[in-house]
Amino acid sequence: MPRPIQAQVHTDALAHNLERARAAAPDARVWAVVKANAYGHGVGLAFAGLRGADGFALLDLHEAEVLRALDWRGPILLLEGAFEPRDLELCSRLGLWHVVHCEEQIDWLANHKTQAPHRVFLKMNSGMNRLGFTPAAFRSAWTRLQALPQVEEVTLMTHFADADGEAGVSRQMSRFDAATNDLPGERSLSNSAALLRHGLKNDWVRAGILLYGSSPDFPEHDIHHWQLQPTMTLRSKIIAVQRLEPGDAVGYGSRFVADRAMRIGIVACGYADGYPRHCGTGTPILVDGRRSGTVGRVSMDMLVADLSALPDAGIGSEVTLWGRGPAGSMLAIDEVAFAAGTIGYELMCAVAARVPISVSPAV
């Protein structure tokens, strides 16, 4: 039989989380952000749950081609725009909308030959300091774009650095508003954190991590607070059981030494599957739907579960690394990420290619 580890994408949860985004911004249109292969879920698999979105936002031109091949005829937005002039040819052929964040991209547009003008999103650097025009340069860029026959419509956008924390969005919003207060055009401002925490009013909201069942401001708020559902489950099984006596060590480096008699289960999951190597003892897991924790170091192909309080668990028991467990149990990916000193985004994006992935409900 194949190795028992598997991942599953829950399209019903994706659809539910999309509706939560709509409820938070009832007058806005919603971009479903599917960059990074739909945050590790697979664009093709996630599409079934997210097809109710008003548009899809991504980075990779190949992902845009996948969506068109799935017969999506609505808007697709390239969040980083064109990377070189010839990318605009594919934008014209596939009808892609794209971000403009630098003068070079405007130059490329000015030299691009197209029969149908492009819809562009002009990005302001209001404080993130990654991409975009400064507030002082924004109006000039807008004027240049408005003069181009290659441009049909310009939407104004920015991205928040601190929407998930104490600093919030007010400082960046003040800069954006001051630079755009008399400019026409729709606005696209809110990411997941700005949408859920601040309820900003704008025309196009960009729902990202919330769609995938991870809280944008964990641990302050968990997914139950935001009424989100897990969209990915990573599960495996126990393949061996060992008994430890006080003083026995477990795993590489003998980092964990038992201080009592223990029963442990060896789980077919390791860092080569995408599970974080730096998860320490006590990282939460579910064994047959019951909560337990890991023991010792995570190795390439295995990790260790504490079965001391689970006398009925043994070889073949189901282990939920994150997501939906049996009998209605659930382990939020944010809890595992927090134990690893990272965020849910990284875990879902890091599931390795060797892990089989399926979709539920079947599509």
Task: Explain briefly what this protein structure is.
By secondary structure, the chain is an alpha/beta fold.
Percent helix, as a range, is 25-40%
Instruction: Please identify which CATH superfamily of the largest domain we are dealing with.
Output: Alanine racemase
Based on the structure given, which CATH architecture of the largest domain is correct?
A: Alpha-Beta Barrel
Q: Per the principal axes of the C-alpha atoms, what is the gross shape?
A: elongated
CATH fold name of the largest domain: TIM Barrel
Strand content: 15-25%
- Gyration radius, to the nearest Å? 23 Å
Describe the largest sheet.
9 strands, mixed
End-to-end C-alpha gap: 25 Å
Order of helices and strands: EHEHHEHEHEHEHEHEHEEEEEEEEEEHHE
Q: What features would you highlight for this structure?
A:
363 residues; alpha/beta; TIM Barrel; Lyase, Ornithine Decarboxylase, Chain A, domain 1; 2 domains; nine-stranded mixed β-sheet; 19 strands; 26% helix
What does this structure look like?
The protein folds into two domains: about 10-210, TIM Barrel; about 230-360, Lyase, Ornithine Decarboxylase, Chain A, domain 1. It contains eleven helices and 19 strands. It is α/β, with parallel strands linked by helices and about 375 residues long. Strands 1, 10, 13, 14, 15, 16, 17, 18 and 19 form a nine-stranded mixed sheet that branches.
Question: What's the structural blueprint in terms of helices and strands?
Answer:
Elements: E1 6-10, H1 11-24, E2 29-33, H2 35-39, H3 43-50, E3 55-58, H4 61-69, E4 76-78, H5 87-94, E5 97-100, H6 103-111, E6 118-124, H7 135-146, E7 151-158, H8 170-180, E8 187-188, H9 192-198, E9 204-207, E10 232-244, E11 249-250, E12 256-257, E13 262-267, E14 284-287, E15 290-293, E16 303-306, E17 318-324, E18 330-331, H10 333-339, H11 344-349, E19 357-360
